[in-house]
Design brief:
Order of helices and strands: HHEEEHEHEE
Strand content: 35-45%
CATH topology of one domain: Aminopeptidase
Strand order of the largest sheet: 1-2-3-4-6-5
Largest sheet: 6 strands, mixed
Number of strands: 6
CATH class of one domain: Alpha Beta
CATH superfamily of one domain: Gcn5-related N-acetyltransferase (GNAT)
Bound molecules: coenzyme A
Structural class: alpha+beta
Number of helices: 4
Distance between the termini: 21 Å
CATH architecture of one domain: 3-Layer(aba) Sandwich
């Protein structure tokens, strides 16, 4: 995690600074403590048994059946289709096993990789919020991409999909 998220280039469009070892530990402590009000999948992406990134689905409001997707990959493995594969699997899991009806991504419009990945995942550009997040001390716009569950996808049919 430190190798991936300590990389300034990888976290360029994130609201947090490159993580130190202490910041990684603090994140993991928060993450594993859980939150009774939300369901959050924060999954390791591995290649040949090695950690190369994270993909997550945060269902903050279970009663609304909406999940936020995020992704972060080791720069050494960019542009090999790996996150498309990982995110596709998690989206499928969210729709089928959790009955979500909408999954969205928030990203910086300058983040060409995230924008293209969202499009490739079949998401539609839904809107732009101006000066919505503070990134490295600067107020930046946020783009929202969303995907709705295909009504033909049965919910709850594959709880073991991952
Ligand atoms: C975003 C990220 C996860 C993409 O992972 P990846 O495994 O490289 O993506 P994939 O290889 O599956 O590529 C998916 C599509 O995006 C395109 N793409 C990837 N990086 C790109 C870039 N820098 N510029 C333009 N397109 C890019 C790929 O070409 C592919 O599209 P195509 O098949 O039409 O050619 C990775 O760049 C990353 O970790 N970035 C830093 C963290 C980050 O910004 N996360 C997003 C926060 S919202």
């Amino acid at each position: 995690m430190l190798r991936v998220e300590g990389d300034a280039e990888a976290v360029r469009y994130q609201s947090f600074e490159p993580r130190t070892a202490d910041a990684c530990r603090a994140y993991l402590a928060r993450d594993t403590a859980g939150d009774p009000d939300r369901t959050c999948f924060d999954l390791a992406v591995t290649l040949d048994g090695s950690f190369i990134g994270r993909v997550g689905l945060d269902i903050k409001r279970p009663e609304r059946s909406v999940g936020e997707l995020w992704f972060m990959l080791d720069r050494a493995h960019w542009r090999r289709g790996l996150m498309f594969e990982a995110a596709s699997a998690l989206i499928d899991y969210g729709f089928r096993a959790h009955g979500l009806h909408r999954i969205f991504v928030e990203c910086d419009p300058r983040n060409a990789a995230a924008v293209r990945l969202a499009e490739k995942l079949g998401m539609q550009r839904e809107g732009l919020l101006r000066k919505h997040v503070c990134i490295k001390g600067e107020w930046c716009d946020s783009l929202y991409y969303g995907l709705l569950r295909d009504p033909r996808t049965p919910a709850g049919s594959r709880p073991d999909a991952l």
